[in-house]
């Protein structure tokens, strides 16, 4: 069952830029997990953990109750993201360990 | 024998059809290790097993080159390609935190290194391999008295020179990626054929091989200028210089022995797969050094 929860703009929450795995854009795998009320595809459990950790960290850093849109770029050596909540924008650079934990994170409000 | 580069499961000689079916099945189950290998080595785009079979055949094709050259090329692509591994990037001009992360995790790695080399020595009948590993054990762990301490001792002295007590270094348990690597390398060295173990372990010494830049590497392990001056401690220079001067011929010699003793049916295929598995473990382990380093920042 797909659950849709409203974001700050009244629409479905958490839009992502990738059409395949929400973290790495891979179309291998078949893992579906609900994050922020949105059912998302991941290629594997590590990517799902990475995504959940990223959203949680952004919410802690910004104090936002939800993230409406998350655009991720980069590769496994280091990624950056632009998060939006209503009109607010937050940008960050980050890297993970092999277990999906954030080992480096640097953010800025843009 | 063909082996899966993600889990080392065995398949028939040259049976890339079975390997492709296995990888697709594991990917369909969203297994992280297999999906990761496909993403990083073949494509992030899912494909049917028949198409993957052809891609695998091309990936593992030695194209008439020695397997040692294939290993070196793959190693460069993975660690020193256009987007190099972040640990050598940080090591170019390292912070105290980066070096302490190196010390704390690497002491665990070196203790396993000794076990791995000892397993290879115990399991080979080839005197040249036994002599090579004996020399390696002495250099890495035994040392040659006061004038030439072991690499392990030089590592601990580097940590002490940066203000970390030796007892604290030795008492700190490894991070998860280091622990996973140690367990896997121990299993490879003790259970897989010794020539595969040799490829798995000694290919990793390519990381400090300064001649890789002549084969397309985008950077060296560290900027050799830090071996002069006062940017890092004298003890750090002593530790880094030892590897810098030793590992060129050292890693080449090991891969030449692998080449020499992997001539049986399917042995080179198996060497390729086991090397790839070890390289993935090493990638994660190098990240663990950086992760440990963050504990010493600020």
Overview features:
heterodimer, A: 110 residues, alpha+beta, five-stranded mixed beta sheet, two-stranded antiparallel ribbon, 7 strands, 40% strand, globular, B: 298 residues, mainly alpha, 2 strands, 1% strand
Describe this structure in words.
The complex is a heterodimer of chains A (110) and B (298). Chain A is 16% helix and 40% strand. Chain A is α+β, with helices and mostly antiparallel strands and 110 residues long. Chain A has one domain. Chain A has a five-stranded mixed beta sheet. Chain A has a two-stranded antiparallel ribbon with strand order 2-3. Chain A is globular. Chain B contains 13 helices and two strands.
The percent of residues in helical segments of chain B reads 55-70%
Overall average residue pLDDT of chain A: 90
With strands numbered from the N-terminus, the spatial order across the biggest sheet of chain B is 1-2
Low-pLDDT residue spans of chain A: none
The biggest beta sheet of chain B reads: 2 strands, antiparallel
Q: Beta-strand level of the residues of chain B, as a percent range?
A: under 5%
* Rg from Cα of chain A: 13 Å
Rough outline of chain B: globular
Derived structural class of chain B = mainly alpha
Average pLDDT of chain B: 95
Distance between the termini of chain B: 51 Å
